[in-house]
Amino acid sequence: MAVVTRFAPSPTGFLHIGGARTALFNWLFTRHHGGVFRLRIEDTDRVRSTQPAIEAIIDGLSWLGVDWDDEIVYQSQRAERHAEVARQLLAAGHAYHCFATQEELAEMREAARREGRPIRYDGRWRDRDPSEAPPGVPPVIRLRAPQEGETVIQDLVQGEVRVGNEHLDDMVLLRADGTPTYMLSVVVDDHDMGITHVIRGDDHLNNAFRQAHVFLGMGWELPAFAHIPLIHGPDGSKLSKRHGALGVDAYRDMGYLPEAMRNYLLRLGWGHGDEEIIDTERAIELFDLDGVGRSPARFDMVKLTNLNGHYMREAEDGRLVDLIWPHLQALVAPHPLSEAARDLLVRAMPGLKVRAKTLVELASSAAFYVRPRPLPMDEKAAKLLDPEAKQLLRDLAPRLEGIDDWTETEAEARVRSFAEDQGKKLGKVAQPLRAALTGSTTSPGIFEVMALLGREETLARLRDAAA
RNA sequence: GACCCCAUCGUCUAGUGGUUAGGACACCGGCCUUUCACGCCGGCAACACGGGUUCGAAUCCCGUUGGGGUCGCCA
What we know:
The structure is a single chain. By secondary structure, this protein is mostly helical. It is about 50% helix and about 10% strand. The protein has 19 helices and 12 strands. A 3-stranded parallel sheet has the order 1-2-3. α8 crosses α10 (about 300-315). The protein binds one RNA strand through α4, β7, α5, α6 and β12.
């Protein structure tokens, strides 16, 4: 049977890390098996669901490179179908009207809590005749869940999980206003969409037992379930905004590459022997549910950053320049960036990208190449350019002016011979030179910088710094 | 509180009855070197605890502890 999966976020905020990983696992699993991956927006909570959130989720998935098949299903548009199923369940005796008021239920829960009893609907309308209904109370429809025996879920990640039916309660399927609840909607949609594998967060494991009885009541076949462990914060507690439960867009803004994020998320809760660096093609080839671990994993920004450094080094130079362009523009503003600047940056990328771990770092380390003179000096660089160093640079300048064949090799030869003539170690000359040319004490190889900058710009910066 | 899930280096993980318990990130040394990175070499570091089962347990069973999740007319 062909695999059909779905990612079903509720649009009440951005696409956070946990959701992104759930989407990724679904997508990888589906692509691995050559199935269909669908996107369903669970916007039945009309108050909390927003259009910007829907867009943020779609943007997040697109950035991640997770694409879906078929049109997006909006759960809110299927309310009538959901209500119809509730009525069918009612007609078949698998559901019943409950006339308990919200106040009554709150009181019931409070009493249960006080007495230390399980907090759960007590089934007070389960066997009562609707003719006993109090006047003026619109009823909800509740599932008539079994009270004896046990419910067993064969979870593809968690294994066999069983719970005694006495622990199940009669959940609300249709609200008093006639709108369906999430518990009903998911089941109906998963069935109608032909979902074969429900891969979602562990927080839904308990729901699976209850949802199973909706499937059963309708005579529908149960999908396979795979409940993946949640992602925790660095301290082991639930991942919160404080930790990094940010939207994936925040990571994009911090300068992370989507392929790095994909690799990181993949390895968080899934493993394949000793393989660490796994690109998307390889991930699709390898990914399956049996490799998913059962324990929660902590989010580790440092490891993400390391992976990002790896993928930056692998990234194509032109693409990197495109990605840092907006950052760069902001850094050199109001000075505009030219086409020539772009070419220069592309050529400079190999030396730059091995030294940066994020695009933001890359942008700031690249800026000196395209900044207008006079170059701003950072504190260490300024300090380095003492009178002695300036004199050295003044003496060096004439040795460079005569070079017609301005190459890295030639520049290196001239600087080295100059240092030798001065009786100085190369570093004594190279560091002031670096400060003058880059405004910093760290940079790519200084001869590479000279070659890329060109003779006139190099000389001009030298003069600026020696003044 | 009830129910469910989980437990190997600091972190992510490999390991499915017999291994010097492996890899990666981080950290600490060293090499390379004009700086910083990259790269390479080396080091530190774990089976939560207690009982079983077994000739033998990180691996199987039970319990304890710890962590997490769920108990809405939210999703």
